[in-house]
Amino acid sequence: MTHGNVTLIGVGRLGICSALVFEKAGYNVLGVDLFPDYVNAINNKTFDSPEPQVNEFLKESKNFRCSTDMKEGIEFSDLLFICVDTPSTGGDRHYDHSKLSRVLSVINSFKPENKHVMIMCTVMPGYIREVGRYLLRDCKNTTLNYNPEFIAQGAIMKGFQNPDVVLIGAENDEIGNRLSEFYKNITTNEPYIAVMNPESAELMKISLNCFITTKIAYANMIGDIADLTPGADKYKILEAIGHDSRVGLKCLMPGWSFGGPCFPRDNRALLGYAEKIGFDAKISRATDQENNDHTRIMAEKYLAENKDEYEFVNIAYKEPCNVPIIEESAKLKVAEYLARHGKKVVLKDKKHIIEVARREYGSLFTYVEI
């Protein structure tokens, strides 16, 4: 016996993880996606993911299947979770909501009633109020809610099951309470469940990531200052700062600049949204600049070593990372800087990560699979 039915629209890199965690917790899950071959691979359990635990969860699943039929997905459950891409656009200061808007429009075309729609992908503050609710205008007694996840690539399954916080931007108290109970079933720890209206949740989502990026940029700034201070030990300094209970040690060690598919774009998106409403988000602007400056400082330090050959191991946007995501990898930015200055640069990583780097950079580097 399951807890009930759940529909998840968009079974991509993040969506399949959500679906499998929902199923693992005892829900009967129907995933909806556009691509028949992909859907068949999931249903046949031949789909292979580099994300840890996905293949294991898929093979063990008994109440998860996929379909290309949106009508079937809408009729399957009154809980409809949407997990599609919202890539950066507008000079990286906004999100492209086109895929999400198309999904909402398709749902509206069926004019379903008594549904609860949850947006799991990151959106700009104001999207639900200004756009989303209009796109579901023909759906009677249907709520539109914001329920994004705070996960890290390479540890998505763990992030879903053991989050620090669950964010629920609920249209009303009824769905807020229902989703709170839903996530008590999903999570294996006891996270803080933050229920607020969708407008607050939209802003909270990017604000949290921006606080983390500011903390990382601050740590690297102190590290760079310490490197220029005779006798100063940046690690000891930041470790001591982090032991103050008002600060904390997480994300406070000096190292590479932040990168990846979330942190840089969320920081710029908050800056873009602030400009839209007439506010100058100086801290977000400074964080982005400090992050870029730190990458430049590291690149110049490496170049000053004047080696004929440089080697970089684990080239994804963070380490350790098993998934082939090199987006805004600070390590690769430094490697590219050195290669453009005539140095031989060797990149070493797992085969699937090296393949992505080779497609992106071609003959600029020497590649070694490990």
Structure, explained:
- InterPro entries: 6-PGluconate_DH-like_C_sf (IPR008927), NAD(P)-bd_dom_sf (IPR036291), UDP-Glc/GDP-Man (IPR017476), UDP-Glc/GDP-Man_DH_dimer (IPR014026), UDP-Glc/GDP-Man_DH_N (IPR001732), UDP_ManNAc/GlcNAc_DH (IPR028359).
- Pfam families: UDPG_MGDP_dh, UDPG_MGDP_dh_N.
- The protein has 370 residues and is α/β, with parallel strands linked by helices.
- The protein has 3 domains: 5-196, Rossmann fold; 198-303, N-(1-d-carboxylethyl)-l-norvaline Dehydrogenase, domain 2 (Orthogonal Bundle); 305-370.
- Helices cover 46% and strands 15% of the residues.
- The protein has 14 helices and 13 strands.
- A 6-stranded parallel sheet has the order 3-2-1-4-7-8, with helices on both faces. It has a 3-stranded parallel sheet with strand order 11-12-13. A two-stranded antiparallel ribbon has the order 5-6.
- α9 crosses α11 and α11 (263-276) packs antiparallel against α12 (282-304).
- The model has no long low-confidence stretch (mean pLDDT 96).
